[in-house]
Amino acid sequence: MPRKTTTSVEVKNRWKVANYKTYQINLRYDVDQELIDFVEQFKAKHDGQGVSDIFRAGIVAMMEAEKN
Fold this sequence. Notes:
It is built from three helices and no strands. The chain has a domain at 32-68. 0% of the residues are buried. It has helices at 9-19, 29-45, 51-67. The chain is 66% helix and 0% strand. With 68 residues, the protein is mainly α. The longest helix has 17 residues, at 29-45.
């Protein structure tokens, strides 16, 4: 019998839970439209970089500011 070549969703989800911390944010159209627009423009401009990259860079910048 040939070896199975696909990974089950269950196995992928277990790996993701073990290797990532997930945060969910909600942005309101009436209050956060400027942030929403930035995120969408960033995604369109930077192929291969996602929303996590935006928040990672922002958090790093805030951490650096806290050091000063």
